[in-house]
Amino acid sequence: MQTIDSTDYVLGHDNHELARLMNQAAFYGELTHELFRLAGISSGMSVVDVGCGAGDVSFLAAAMVGPSGRVLGVDKSPDAIATATARAEQAGLRNVRFEVGEVASLAIDQPVDAIVGRLVLLYMPDPSATLAQLATLVKPGGVLAFQEMDMPAGKTSPPCSLFDDTLASLCETFRRVGCDPQIALRLGPIFERAGLPSPKMIQGARVERGPNNAAAAQLAQVTRTLLPAMERTGVATLESIDIDTLEARVLEQMLALDATAISPPLIGAWTRTHRVTG
After folding, report:
1. Burial class (CB in 10 A: 0-12, 13-18, 19+), 117
2. Taking the model in full, what pTM does it have?
């Protein structure tokens, strides 16, 4: 077994991955919207979306803050930022812009009302230190809201072995590259170690079944992107995965079993920075 000690984004930033991120955004969008609503993202606010990828979370925040608000999306990948910028221009969005930057060392001109992120802390070598740094960019009483995945908690009923085994392989790959597939369960301590007030938290998941089961497609898309890391770490081989038929085989098995899939749930955590008193 090979273990990789890397803080790089293991899924990469090529065109396939950017397209996968857009599909993932549609899959999980309602869950993120609910987190932002509970966290207090609203009209007129200034928001920074860290690790924005192709821009979908930024677009969601932009819709919530409206034309009187503003959103800045930040990602270290120039390709992702180019894609997000082109999408914003095509949609005619004027309250959102994108910049290349490192999340852990981000600097901005003026404090903002909120900093948000989805599936970002997973890739930080020290998530608490990252949150502590980001908190310095938020106005007193401002919002920090982050959403992460409890990957092993995804399941099928009755059990679909191909879905469950593939998900287990993805979890093991993330472990071997140095990422915690259950980081969502540590969000409370991560916020507190950053010196932030203990966060409120909520969990949500997609439940899928039938011939239009989007969970099967999501599983196959993540597996395709992660295949190089799976091979490199000895989790699986191209031959054992047979990626070109994986989605169809998962769907076929689930239909034969009349199985229901619960996607790996997202746990959202949010808090407000300490207000200045005295």
Report:
1. buried
2. 0.89
